[in-house]
Amino acid sequence: MNTSDFKNSSQQIPNRLLLGPGPSNTPPRVLTAMNQPMLGYLDPVFLELMDETMELLRGVFGTENQLTFPVSATGSAGMEATLCNLIEPGDEIIVCVNGFFGARIADIVKRCRGKLHVVEGDWGNIIDPEDVENKLNAVNAKIVCIVHAETSTGVLQPLDDISAMAKRNDALLLVDCVTSLGGVPVNLDASGIDVAYSCTQKCLGGPPGLSPVSFSDRAVEIIHKRKTEIQSFYLDMRLLSNYWGKERVYHHTAPISMNYAINEALKLVEEEGLTQRYHRHQLHSQALAAGLESIGIERIAQEGHRAPMLTSVSIPDGVDDAGIRRRLLEEYNIEIGGGLGVFKGKAWRIGLMGESCRKESVIRLLSALEDLLPDVTQLAAVEAAEKVYAAE
Length: 392
Ligand SMILES: *Cc1c(COP(=O)(O)O)cnc(C)c1O
Hints:
By secondary structure, the chain is α/β, with parallel strands linked by helices. It has 15 helices and 13 strands. Pyridoxal-5'-phosphate binds next to helix 4.
């Protein structure tokens, strides 16, 4: 490769419409923010930006939690950070598993040497609160872990009952908000969620690379009273809070440009307003669903518990899963997701997250599917979606 090839390489990246399970499209203002000059990780201007980011994050999370900041890595690091700081060997941990990401939590609990108790639910259905109650009665659980929006199935889990049960049993409630944050209300404090983590690249509208986390004072106290050392240096909240808190002690070099990005993304969220943003996710997912159903594509997730930002659908009989997704990508520049785990080859996962959640996305995808799928009347799906918009 000569220098001119190298120079051209980034200009050859196609401009995709990202309608998969994440990342979503990054708004131009966020990309511009990332292009700002580099700063040192203790530069007063950067420290100010960190404080502002923490405040903005508290707003989206709906919390007063002091310990609320972005961990320097993707959503899975937030998962690992929350778990490895709270779990000591032998601790009894309940994990709700009704999809791929619940199973990942269970995996990490074992790696942290926690004593794992799984509450299982069918893929595509919510976790039954009664099953959680039974498990809480059977074991002396320190934490109940659950996924809010299970991206592998498109299920949005109701949390109120489970939160009340955890409180009654003196267990912490730890919630995966990776896909939900910024797309549906999360409200940590009002919902009694003690610990939560998320990511930048789904409904917050940033590029992948940071994982906002939040710990209640009660959770922080538990971390400080640990008898054993936190196994991870990089994710040690006591050390990290010395950098994000008043002390400003070096721990690792903050990914500066990523922090510019999350700061700008959160400002966009604030400018739009949370209520408006949640409404936008609801509206476009309804229009998408109406369009898909009009051409015989059915949703999988349990009715009444569908996550607006991630629509999982059954692939119609006789349709070539990989072939259609490849043509969508190559001919229409549209990415959608395939099935994960038990849904592999059986489901498509269509994301309408953050910047990607727009009418233009819905219409472009539906008309592409009208072109690509056999026996579909042109404009049938687009017109069904337009009806939803017209009723707005
Ligand atoms: C995407 C996702 C994760 C993992 O986040 P990464 O940023 O890919 O590490 C965890 N949980 C849920 C529910 C997700 O959708």
